[in-house]
Amino acid sequence: MRATIVDLRYRMKDVLKALDRREDVSILYHGRLKGIIVAQGTGTQARVEQHPFYNMRSSKVSVDDEMDRLRGGRHRAL
Prior knowledge:
It contains 3 helices and 3 strands; from the N terminus they run βααββα. It is an alpha+beta fold.
C-alpha cells in the first residue's frame, strides 16, 4: 500500500488494516518515498480448515439449521 502523510493523519484505520493483511506500507511525502512500514508479527489468520463453513457440502445439516446454530439466538427469522 502507498500512503501519504495526509493518509496517515486521516486514514490511519486503512493503514492499520493493510498491516493486518501483512502488506508493507510505503510512506510518501510530496510524492517521494520517505520510508516503509513493514508488517510484523504472526497475525491472527486461521487456517481454512478451521472456518465453520469448511467442507459444509458433505454435512447432513441444512444451511438454515447451520446458520441458526452459528448465530446462536442472535437472529430471529421474520
